[in-house]
Design a protein that fits this description.
The complex is a heterodimer. Chain A is α+β, with helices and mostly antiparallel strands. Chain A is built from ten helices and eight strands. In chain A, the strands form two sheets. In chain A, strands 2-3-6-8-7 form a five-stranded mixed barrel. Chain A has a two-stranded antiparallel sheet with strand order 4-5. In chain A, a hairpin with a 2-residue loop joins β2 and β3. Chain A is globular. The N terminus of chain A is likely disordered. In chain B, α3 runs antiparallel to α4 and α4 runs antiparallel to α5. About 6% of the residues of chain B have low confidence. The N and C termini of chain B lie far apart (111 Å). Chain B is built from five helices and no strands. The longest helix of chain B is centred in the middle third of the chain and has 27 residues. Classes of the chains: A alpha+beta, B mainly alpha. At the A-B interface, α5, α6, α7, β2 and β3 of A face α1 and α5 of B.
């Protein structure tokens, strides 16, 4: 009688096994090995390369993909090679900012698709914008931070800014949609944790119960009592290590971003990397009642170009 | 060959957010969107005491004569605005005629006083074509807002003389 349900369970379990296996894990040695510097075959024609998307798929590591796209310049020209470099980035998870800046600085400055690609890379690198914007600016690639733009509003009008923010709300009026963004700054939290497999531990539990009854003809009369206790404990000793985690915290800086149309993927209360064009700044009415120091926080007015998940 | 390049460029372009502005190269500053924000301070936000930004785009006066005239017009406009908003604010909410009249008087006096800072020295018109205040008009906006908010505060009844303190049943230890 119980055989049928048992067989059904086995069938269900096997059906789950049929799904596509996960891609094999990359070994540490492979991940950190220097980029493949084998020269590109001169006879390799542009047609033989195939579509950039398919071409990029053959490389498991972004460093190899970018390096080979760079090598394509020699035989196929910068313009064609760039389309393959773009495919390396569009594949996702591309973090090779330094090599991209070294090999493609001209394209990054002159191509209209470059700003969104840069923002995508900065998001893939975890939103460490201070360091990453410095890498870009060292090569005179004009992508800036919000704070600099607000300090010299006139000089930054029409320039591209990148920052991490959360959407606070979406406001629509007379067919115009605006997002209220709250800028986030990267900080860190540290915690002491037991290092893996090096701890020693003991644990134990104990429990008990008791009961008592008495009967007497004296002044005490009669009664009953019962009680129970339980105790459990554990102790672990071992080697501790400090772990540091990135956390984003609100800076208090508000940004009003104009968008052409609402997008359901623009999730409220989620940290995202925003690429925007700086349109100027304006003062909030509430800032008038401030401390009179004249350093009222101005709200940035921007136009959204793209946004990227961290 | 050109077709192949175009096809390759299109296929290589990453998925773009359709609600965003058209991207342009980084090497030249893009055209700026100067249209005021939805959240610009206006007569509407003043009326509702709601949070706003000074992002109006009023006309600027070029000549001294125009500025002189505009300064007077701005003050008159602010007075008119204040009076209208006092009437609107106190109209349907107060049943007590006396209380309403007293508060109305205080509100109009307050907004008239506030209007004195609304000349903007005639540099620009107080409001733009859609009733928005610019950054320069911030002080005027705030003065009017404060005066209007005072109209919401009930006037306390005239204070009666304080009764003498009740005598204590216990003798005090006077030193």
């Amino acid at each position: 009688m119980i055989r049928f349900p048992f067989v059904a369970c086995v069938v269900v379990a096997c059906a789950a096994c049929v799904t596509t296996p996960p891609p094999p894990k990359m070994s540490t040695a492979e991940a950190f090995a220097p980029a493949d510097s084998a020269p590109v075959d001169a006879a390799q024609s542009r047609a033989a390369l195939g579509a950039p998307k398919d071409w990029a798929r053959q490389y498991r590591r972004d460093i190899d993909c970018e390096r080979n796209a760079h090598e394509l310049k020699q035989h196929n020209g910068r313009e064609v090679a760039w389309t393959y470099a773009v495919a390396c980035i569009a594949k996702g998870g591309f973090t090779q900012l330094e090599s991209l800046v070294d090999h493609w600085d001209e394209e990054l400055r002159t191509r209209p698709e470059a700003p969104a690609l840069i923002a995508q890379i900065l998001a893939s690198r975890g939103g460490h914008l201070r360091v990453d914007l410095e890498i870009l600016q060292q090569k005179r690639i004009p992508v800036f931070d919000l704070n600099s733009a607000l300090k010299q509003s006139g000089a930054f009008k029409g320039r591209y800014l990148v920052f991490v923010a959360k959407i606070s709300e979406l406001k629509e009026k007379k067919g115009k949609t605006e997002l209220v963004l709250l800028e986030q700054a990267l900080g860190s939290e540290s915690a002491m944790v037991l290092s893996n497999g090096r701890g020693y531990g003991s644990s134990g539990t104990s429990a008990g119960s008791g009961a008592a009854q008495w009967r007497s003809n004296g002044v005490l009369g009669s009664g009953s009592a019962s009680g129970s206790y339980s105790r459990s404990g554990s102790s672990v000793s071992g080697q501790y290590e400090q772990r540091v985690t990135d956390v984003f915290e609100e800076t208090g800086q508000e940004v009003i971003a104009k968008i052409k149309q609402p997008d359901p993927f623009l999730t409220v209360d989620k940290n995202l990397v925003f690429l925007v064009r700086f349109d100027g700044s304006a003062r909030l009415d509430t800032d008038l009642a401030g401390d009179g120091s004249g350093d009222a926080l101005r709200t940035a007015l921007v136009t959204l170009i793209s946004y990227h998940d961290l | 060959m050109l077709t192949l390049t175009i096809v390759m460029l299109l296929s290589a372009e990453p998925d773009r957010f359709l609600g965003g502005a058209k991207p342009t190269p980084l090497n030249t500053p893009a055209a700026v969107d100067t249209t005021p924000s939805n959240q610009a301070c206006s007569t509407l936000t003043l009326r509702h005491s709601s949070k706003c930004l000074f992002d109006g785009r009023p006309a600027v006066m070029e000549t001294d004569a125009a500025r002189k005239k505009q300064a007077k017009d701005n003050v008159e406009l602010a007075k008119g605005l204040g009076k209208g908003m006092c009437t609107e604010r106190l109209g349907p909410t107060l049943e007590d005629e006396m209380e309403r009249a007293r508060r109305m008087k205080l509100c109009v006096e307050g907004t008239t006083r506030a209007s004195a800072v609304c000349s903007l020295e005639g540099a620009e018109v107080l409001l733009d074509s859609e009733g928005r205040f610019s950054n320069r008009a911030g002080t005027c906006y705030e003065a009017l807002a404060t005066a209007l908010q005072m109209a919401d505060v009930p006037i306390p009844p005239k204070e009666a003389p304080e009764p003498p303190p009740a005598k204590s049943r216990y003798p005090t230890n006077a030193l």
